[in-house]
Each structure stands twice: as structure tokens, then as C-alpha cells.
Protein: Amidase signature enzyme
Organism: Calocera cornea HHB12733
Amino acid sequence: MHLTRLAFLLAAAVGLAQANHWVGTSPKNGKPLIDLLYASIDDLQSGMSEGTFSAVDLTKAYLARIAEVNPVLHAVIETNPDAVAIAASLDAERKNGTVRGPLHGIPIIVKDNIATLDKMNTTAGSFALLGSIPPRDSTTAAKLKKAGAIILAKANLSQWANYRSSNSTNGWTSRGGQTMGAYYPMQDPSGSSSGSGVCSSIGLAAAVIGTETSGSIIGPSQRNSLTGIKPTVGLTSRALVVPISQTQDTIGPMTRSMKDAAYVLSVIAGKDQYDNYTSAIPWDTIPDYAAACIASDGLKGAKIGIPRNAITASATNGPELVKFNQSIEILKSLGAVITESADFPNLAEYRASSNTTNVLYADFKYDVADYFKQMVVNPTNISSLAQLINFTETYPAEDYPDRNVDRWIGSMNLTWEIGSAEYWAAVQADRYLGEEATILGSLDNYGLDALIIPSSLSPGFAAIAGSSSCMLMDHVIY
Ligand SMILES: *[C@@H]1O[C@H](CO)[C@@H](O)[C@H](O)[C@H]1NC(C)=O
Ligand SMILES: *[C@@H]1O[C@H](CO)[C@@H](O)[C@H](O)[C@H]1NC(C)=O
Ligand SMILES: *[C@@H]1O[C@H](CO)[C@@H](O)[C@H](O)[C@H]1NC(C)=O
Ligand SMILES: *[C@@H]1O[C@H](CO)[C@@H](O)[C@H](O)[C@H]1NC(C)=O
Ligand SMILES: *[C@@H]1O[C@H](CO)[C@@H](O)[C@H](O)[C@H]1NC(C)=O
Ligand SMILES: *[C@@H]1O[C@H](CO)[C@@H](O)[C@H](O)[C@H]1NC(C)=O
Ligand SMILES: *[C@@H]1O[C@H](CO)[C@@H](O)[C@H](O)[C@H]1NC(C)=O
Ligand SMILES: *[C@@H]1O[C@H](CO)[C@@H](O)[C@H](O)[C@H]1NC(C)=O
Ligand SMILES: *[C@@H]1O[C@H](CO)[C@@H](O)[C@H](O)[C@H]1NC(C)=O
Ligand SMILES: CC(=O)N[C@H]1CO[C@H](CO)[C@@H](O)[C@@H]1O
């Protein structure tokens, strides 16, 4: 039975390359059509500029593919009913001589917690937000649209970005069902950007956007074999993204190549009047990250360290460490200078702390209420965490109590609030634990450019430091 299912997925993947997924039955201009499972953004731009296919062709092909695989994978919650019309207007613009940039006419899927002011819902996978209407696009969606991207669909996720239940499953939402990974029948897709990971891995869009509070981009990027970038908190605006925590949330790309992630990051990064964390960005012009991907000798002389004590202290399993060790050899062959034991200076204190749990409890209670209050239309009238708990416990499709609401109870239990003296003490403790005690401490002590660590061990350090991390080749680079 498992084999049958796998065969279906593989057949579907092969079918993608065939002409019947395109408008028109044969290649135009004598150029071969592209297999969307492997196409890069550069490939898609070449095809559109050469007239081999249009943004409308591309959009229809991706929508057909979503319809084909979604009944099994549940990676998509909703598709955009206006996607083909938007593609047509971008095609007209291109014909007229305007190409806005590398994302012009490129279909992109966003996680269902990133608000769009269009015919799609934004719900974090919950009926509590169904039919809610934001005052405008989230800044991330607005920047993508301005760059000429087509927001094709909303990706399924772990409900509330995995900030509701202590006993739910990765990739489950009441609205979207259970997301499955595409590599193996019934595969756990990891989370919370579960649908984003699966959509990207199987080529349901040219690029996908996820969000991370602690591990939600890196985890599914590892599990679905992607490049995922978890930007420094504040590099990408969180305005009108269903929140967990203003201290730790960040928005980033999940793609099949580093260069595609770089194209997307350059578009979505930047200062934003609606998210004051972005005011810490040191540049007025965001770097052209994709241009930096061209250098073939980019790692020559790069000083990279391994925080070995964090690896030794963990229970990470064998296969991941085998791959991790192989990646180190690849980095060496590309000219990187590796420091084998760039130990974190105060790992013990990091491991003893649970400050982050309390910071998230305090942030969520305030931030989620603030999100509901910003809605122009809010059909459930929820405006506090207490009301959200009541709704979730009484609305049958929310699957309570089988999936509990323990994180929210923990949040209600906390005896202090965001902005209190206790709050700032916990945030300051986390900054120390994620910076001097671990990531920055090792970078400084050993004079390094970067650290690498197995992906599954990486999220906690970067989460509390608010620092960037990037999943690539089975390991994470800080
Ligand atoms: C094409 O460009 C012309 C001149 O800039 C403009 O007037 C026209 O509205 C454009 N048409 C489309 C479809 O973008
Ligand atoms: C949201 O979902 C509902 C129910 O599925 C649908 O009727 C509606 O068109 C969707 N979009 C918006 C913006 O409400
Ligand atoms: C953002 O604004 C809030 C409220 O005014 C303030 O407490 C916080 O320090 C500001 N954060 C940054 C990074 O400027
Ligand atoms: C990976 O390399 C380290 C350092 O050389 C070594 O101690 C460890 O046993 C290796 N792990 C695996 C699974 O090969
Ligand atoms: C928070 O971190 C500080 C500094 O490491 C530590 O003293 C304190 O016990 C931690 N509190 C909790 C609740 O973990
Ligand atoms: C929300 O409030 C409006 C206006 O007071 C009311 O008409 C509506 O019935 C309320 N909806 C719910 C689900 O309570
Ligand atoms: C709790 O939810 C139920 C069902 O939706 C509703 O009838 C009731 O008024 C709610 N109670 C509170 C305190 O909001
Ligand atoms: C989840 O936890 C709740 C208690 O918090 C329990 O009632 C429920 O049975 C649990 N669900 C599963 C699937 O174990
Ligand atoms: C919340 O507080 C109650 C009462 O003190 C306690 O029984 C429960 O375990 C707490 N739950 C969480 C998730 O913190
Ligand atoms: C686009 C799509 O297929 N959406 C589906 C997501 O999952 C829910 C629940 O299984 C379906 O009702 C939607 O049709």
C-alpha cells in the first residue's frame, strides 16, 4: 500500500514535465518545456522573456499540479482565485517592456499566517480567523506583489504556527487537515511551516514563504530537503503576520536553491513603519543577496567553527551526524578553514534556562489579541486570548480536547505581562544566553566568520538571540 502511494507521487512528479500540464500542447519557439520540480527562478525568467511560456501558463501549470497532489499531501489550504488574472496583467506589462525584477510573473506560495487583502483567507489554520479581513496586505505580501510576484496560494501549517497545543501533530490544522511530506508515504513534514516545506519540495510554486519563532523554517527545510533562511529578527517585517512573539518571530524564504532564496530575501527584507524592529536594519538599501551567490570562490579562507560541545551534549542521531561530517569535508574542499571545536562558552547556563518559554507566553497573549484587534472584519469578535481559548474549546472542528490548548493555558497562567520588569529580565537573559553565552561568544572567542551545527540542534540558540540561520546541505550556518 505504501508502495502504491509512492508510485502515485512519483508518477505525478514525472507528469509535471509533460506538455499536457501547459496551455498549448507543444513547446513554443522549439524550446523544451521546463520540469517545474527542478526549475529555478532564473530558468522561469528566461522562459518568459524568450516567450517559451507566459506567467499565465506557469500559473495554470502550478494550479493543476496543486489540484493533482493536494488530496494526498494537504500542503495547500486555499488557492488564489485571481491568480491567473494577476498573471495575465503581469504578462501584459512584460509585453509592454516593463519587467519589475527577478520575481516578475513568478508564482509564490505564502504560509497561511501571512495576511493578504484579496479573495484568500488568512487564518493560521484556525476557524477563529476564517472570514477575517486585514486593513491591508501584510508588508511581506505587499513587497512580493510590488516586485511582480503572483501570490498563488496559502500553505498549510502546524496550526497557530505550533503555538496552541502540546499534543497536536506537525502540519495539522482544523481548516487544512494533515500535511504530509512528499518523500515517503505518511511522512511527518516537520513544522510549523509544514505546507511551505512540502509545497517547495514538490514544486507547487517557484518559491515559498515560511515563518519561524524557533525552528519553524529550519525544521521543515531540513525534512523536505530545502534551502531555508531564518532571517535575523527585524530584517523582515512581521506586520500583519499572525504572531507568536514579537521578540522571536521572523519571515523567510524556503526554496530548492540558495539563489532562489536570495532573490526572495532581497525583496521581502527592509524597514517598515508598521514593525519597529525593522528600524535596526543597518542599511537603507537591502543587499542584492543573489549577486553574492555567483562567486565560485566565496568560501575561500572563510573561518567557520563547529560548536562541538553542543553536539556532544545532544542526542542527535547517527545519520544526521554522518551527513554533517560529510558537509564539513565539502566546505573544506571549497577553501573554508574549519575550527573543529569552537565550543559555546556557557552551554550549561543556556541549557538550564527556560526564560524563552515565559517570553513567548507573555508575547503571545498580547500579540495575538493585537492581531485580532487589527482586523477590519472579525467574524468571531475574538479580541483576547481568553476568548480564543473559549472558541477553540467549543468549536467542534478545532478537535479539542484531543488536541489541547496547553500553550495558551501556560500563557494565561503566567503571573506577569509583556513590558513588566520580569519580562525585560527574561528577554535580557535570553539575549545573553543566545549571544555571549553561545553564538556570539564562539564567533568572538575563535575569530570566526560563521558557525555550523546540525540542523536539528540549531533552532533554540538562534531563536533567543534573534539571530539569522540558514539551512543548507544538512547543516545550519549562523
Ligand atoms: C503600456 O505602456 C504604455 C506607455 O507607458 C501605457 O500607456 C499603457 O497603459 C501600458 N499598457 C499596459 C497593458 O501595461
Ligand atoms: C474565506 O473562506 C470562505 C469559506 O471557505 C470563503 O467563502 C471566502 O471567499 C474566503 N475568502 C475570504 C476573503 O473571506
Ligand atoms: C518598538 O516600539 C515599542 C512600543 O513603542 C517599544 O517598547 C520598543 O522598544 C520598540 N522596539 C524597537 C526595536 O525599537
Ligand atoms: C563526526 O566527526 C566527529 C569529529 O571528527 C567525530 O567525533 C564523530 O564521531 C563523527 N560522527 C559520525 C557519526 O561520523
Ligand atoms: C533566566 O536566565 C537567567 C540567566 O541565565 C537565569 O539566572 C534564570 O534562572 C533563568 N530563568 C528561568 C525561568 O529559566
Ligand atoms: C459579533 O458582533 C456583531 C456585532 O455586535 C454581531 O452582530 C455578531 O453576531 C457577533 N458574532 C459572534 C460570532 O458573536
Ligand atoms: C464561549 O463560547 C461559547 C460558544 O461559542 C459562547 O456561547 C460563550 O458565550 C463563550 N463564553 C465566553 C465567556 O466568551
Ligand atoms: C491531549 O492532551 C489532553 C489533555 O491536555 C488529553 O485530554 C487528550 O486526550 C490528549 N490527546 C491525545 C491524542 O493524546
Ligand atoms: C496552569 O495553572 C494550573 C493551575 O495552577 C496548573 O494546574 C496547570 O498545570 C498550568 N498549566 C500550564 C500549561 O502551565
Ligand atoms: C486547495 C485545497 O485543496 N484546499 C483543501 C484543504 O484542505 C481542506 C480540508 O481537507 C479542504 O476542504 C480544502 O479543499
Remarks:
- The chain is about 40% helix and 10% strand.
